[in-house]
Design goal:
Blueprint lengths: L14 H16 L6 H18 L5 H14 L15
Helix pairs in contact: 1-3, 2-3
Length: about 90
């Protein structure tokens, strides 16, 4: 028996997905994660202005959501301590 090959249609990312991916890529390349909070804000202001011009069909709400994602992406990971795992 031979298996039938199915053709999958490539999914096209939405404009918001493309902008998000580009923002995350810029964050990693520019080392923003290690920057001081005031430098992160300045960098994010400039980058969001660039993304708003590049992806001019994004709404203000989508740009706000994109910025929030980028700011959260730059935050350090916080781990919850479990009971009994704290240092004495």
């Amino acid at each position: 028996m031979s298996k039938k090959k199915t053709r999958s249609t490539p999914s096209v990312a939405s404009t918001q997905d493309q902008a998000r991916d580009e923002l995350f890529s810029h964050i990693l390349r520019c080392g923003v994660i290690e920057a001081l909070p005031e430098h992160q804000k300045e960098w994010m202001d400039d980058t969001m202005q660039y993304l708003a011009e590049r992806y001019d069909d994004l709404t203000d709400t989508e740009l706000t959501q994109l910025r929030e994602l980028g700011e959260r992406y730059c935050q350090p990971v916080r781990r919850k301590e479990t009971a009994g795992s704290g240092a004495a």
